[in-house]
Write a structure and sequence with these properties.
Elements: H1 4-23, H2 29-46, H3 56-78, H4 97-109, H5 113-124, H6 129-136, H7 140-161
Length: 168
């Protein structure tokens, strides 16, 4: 068990970033809050097991990553995905900031979960490949491969989502 003041300090420091990270995969506010609470409960219970092999932030995001995956798997068993055809129409003016965000979000949804998370850890949270590998508990080569394949898929799907014709 850990120190209450230290846990409070970690909570204040990381809660916002964790909320953003988790909300990118799960839009249900209650689920996001539950995952964050579960993450900090694990941090509290496992504080003595932290071995300083990585940064504290990497360790905490790794815990949140695993909690989010478990939540995602539970939800997937209970609900079905909405087909792309039923998704709201994308505006044809991707230069507007909100439309651009929506366009990229729709593109990210086309990726397998592990590739989507790699992209979000890299581009939204600014983690380096070593940190991404540590958070997702995979070799660095696997993290790099996931990012490579995610970028390739995004290059192929984004033009179609933006209303541009695709040429092979």
């Amino acid at each position: 068990m850990g120190n209450c003041e230290a846990l409070q300090e970690l909570y204040v420091k990381y809660r916002g970033r964790l909320a953003y990270f988790v909300a990118r995969m799960n839009r249900c506010h209650e689920d996001v809050e539950e995952i964050i609470n579960d993450t900090f409960m694990t941090v509290w219970q496992s504080a003595g097991e932290f071995r300083h092999a990585s940064q504290v932030s990497t360790w905490i995001f790794g815990i949140a990553y695993r909690k989010t995956l478990r939540s995602f798997r539970r939800q997937r068993r209970n609900t079905s995905n909405v087909p792309l055809e039923e998704a709201p129409e994308q505006s044809t003016d991707p230069m507007h900031e909100m439309e651009m965000h929506d366009w990229l979000t729709r593109g990210l949804r086309q990726l397998p979960l592990n590739q989507r998370l790699t992209m979000q850890l890299s581009y939204k949270l600014g983690l380096c490949m070593e940190e991404i590998a540590a958070v997702t508990e995979v070799p660095i080569g696997t993290a790099k491969a996931r990012q490579f394949h995610a970028r390739s898929k995004m290059r192929r799907c984004l033009p179609a989502l933006g209303g541009e014709p695709q040429f092979s």
